[in-house]
Sequence to fold (206 residues):
Amino acid sequence: MTARLPDTYFDQIYADRADPWDLATRWYEQRKYAITLALLPDRRYRHAFEPGCSIGTLTELLVQRCDHVTAIDIAEAALASAADRLDAAGCRGQVTLSRSALDAPWPAEPFDLVVLSEVGYYLDAELLAEVLRRECARLPGVTLVAAHWRHDVADYPLTGDEVHDIIAATPGLVSLGRYRDDDVVVEVFSADGASVAAREGVPGAR
Ligand SMILES: C[S@@+](CC[C@H](N)C(=O)[O-])C[C@H]1O[C@@H](n2cnc3c(N)ncnc32)[C@H](O)[C@@H]1O
Fold:
């Protein structure tokens, strides 16, 4: 097997359907996005990086919490839909969209939030671990939120749980908290794992 699913795999999926995972319409996805955003420990972020943005459904929500979002995908068709969606939502100016891969060198911006939503399992374990080690090392203090499907998918090199185990083993990332059910795991990591109450100085929090 190659180190990740090829671009052509996703180009074909988007050729068949504009929204292959029903991201824009399915309640499962809307609920998952709400959980993902609810887990973010800070009220606001300066600049988020969202690899595998697809048609921009989560991107559109992220701009409500982030001054700017840099969103990438390997599929041109997905990026075109994302641009239309963000235009229609009036937030296109807050988002840099470009064609690139999670496993390519990340843009040089000092991101304070990384969002890995349903994208980690397209890489094999070695490549995902290498990318996270390389890129997180130059983002001190970053918050990383990840959300992944937990059921097996035959084509994917990793399961969602395996992706989260690899993220948790990345130097400099500590799990701050997570939501998990039969379908999905959503987990947030930070440099120190300090709780929100502790950061805010809520009396009684350590
Ligand atoms: C299931 S969609 C996830 C969409 C979005 N992140 C969400 O949670 O709603 C997966 C997306 O990842 C993209 N993708 C697959 N492999 C990738 C890679 N190596 N780098 C960047 N994007 C990738 C696909 O083209 C697809 O648009």
